[in-house]
Amino acid sequence: MTKNVDHSHRNEDATPFYPAIIPAEAGHPTSTSFIVIETADGRGQGIKGRRVFNRGEQVAKVSGVISSHTTLDTIQITPTLFFSDPWFCRFLLHSCEPNLQIDLERLAVRALRDISPDEYLTIDYADTDDTVTFQFACKCEAPSCRGWVKGRAEQISEEGRRHLAKQGS
């Protein structure tokens, strides 16, 4: 069962995801094209499109702030700079076979393949950060699932090694 979160339609007007302090731009996500919902599998809140997105299509223009430290809401730009978008990118779930890619030069999210409205929008956290705030068991269920989510420069934690050993038995 899914639970609608605050970005759903309230009237005929599109509700923007970004607060008024972020200057509005064409292509910013709104409730017309996206909905944030609670996942049924315990991964937390995720985002789905309200329509089909075709491979290569710009799904959304994103905005945020630059920070010198990593949080759950950041994507790494350089070894010491991070892009923070707690309004839209925060809800992109992890998948070992993601359907989106974030282009930080253009501040755009693009579809890696055709995406239907019943799919969560996903990125591969190992492609976006050297280290993650915390490592965790992967629940993406992709055929090539690695079983454990970590940053691209990290070793699998002891907890991850135990988890993967249990999965293999």
Please provide a written account of the structure.
It is a single chain. This protein has 169 residues and is mainly beta. The protein is 9% helix and 25% strand. The chain contains two helices and twelve strands, in the order E-E-E-E-E-E-E-E-E-E-H-E-E-H. The chain has helices at residues 125-128, 158-168; strands at residues 34-38, 45-49, 58-61, 65-67, 74-78, 81-84, 93-94, 100-103, 108-111, 122-123, 136-137, 148-149. It has a three-stranded antiparallel beta sheet, with no helix packed on it. A three-stranded antiparallel beta sheet has the order 4-6-5, with no helix packed on it. It has a two-stranded antiparallel ribbon with strand order 1-2. The chain is globular and about 50 Å long. Residues 1-11 have low confidence and may be disordered.
**Distance N to C terminus:** 31 Å
Q: Which sheet architecture does the biggest sheet show?
A: 3 strands, antiparallel
Average pLDDT metric: 90
Flag low-confidence runs.
1-11
Helix/strand class: mainly beta
User: Can you tell me the CATH topology of the domain at 34-129?
Assistant: Beta-clip-like
